[in-house]
Amino acid sequence: MKKIEAYVRHEAFDPIREDLLDRGFPSLTITEVKGSGRQEGVVEHYRGAAVVVNVRPKLKVEVFVADKDKSMVVETILKHARTGEVGDGKIFVSTVDEVYRVRTGEEGEEILDAHAPWEIPA
């Protein structure tokens, strides 16, 4: 089992979510975060004063998947998050040793199986 943790720009999230939903992966955890990376501070103007912003807002997207689905999920995130500019984000993949469904007590990789593709309401 794998934990995929992606830090992406806000505008990349909706296409990522829709594509993963269409592929049967509706379960995501999203956290608003701020961080810094290779990009320099960005100068913004607030009430006529120049302000250097050293941390930028991002979304942290966490997805837990079976080993066989890891590449597809990573490729989906890369497809929608990559602009080629500094600040596109990062993806981290970790191994998960155990997983349990709280409601039923089930355990193991089968509780992470992809769902049938969902229809997105119009």
3D structure, described in words:
The chain is of the alpha+beta class and 122 residues long. The chain has a single domain, classed as Alpha-Beta Plaits, CATH 3.30.70.120. 20% of the residues lie in helices and 34% in strands. It has helices spanning 10-22, 70-81, and strands spanning 2-8, 29-35, 42-46, 49-53, 56-65, 89-95. The strands form 2 sheets. It has a 4-stranded antiparallel sheet. A two-stranded antiparallel sheet has the order 3-4. A hairpin with a 2-residue loop joins strand 3 (42-46) and strand 4 (49-53). Helix 1 runs antiparallel to helix 2 (70-81). The longest helix is centred in the N-terminal third of the chain and has 13 residues, at 10-22. The two termini are 33 Å apart. 16% of the residues are buried. The model has no long low-confidence stretch (mean pLDDT 88).
Q: Over all CA atoms, what is the radius of gyration? A: 17 Å
Which of globular, elongated, flat, extended, rod-shaped describes the shape? elongated
Tell me the count of domains. 1
CATH class placement: Alpha Beta
Count of distinct strands: 6
Q: Indicate the structural class.
A: alpha+beta
Runs in which pLDDT lies below 50 for 5 or more consecutive residues are: none
SSE arrangement, N to C? EHEEEEHE
Main β-sheet description: 4 strands, antiparallel
Largest sheet: spatial strand order: 2-5-1-6
Helix share of residues?
A: 10-25%
The CATH topology annotation reads as Alpha-Beta Plaits
- Number of discrete helical segments: 2
**Architecture, according to CATH?**
2-Layer Sandwich
Round the mean pLDDT to the nearest integer and report it.
88
Q: Distance between termini?
A: 33 Å
Estimated share of beta-strand residues: 25-35%
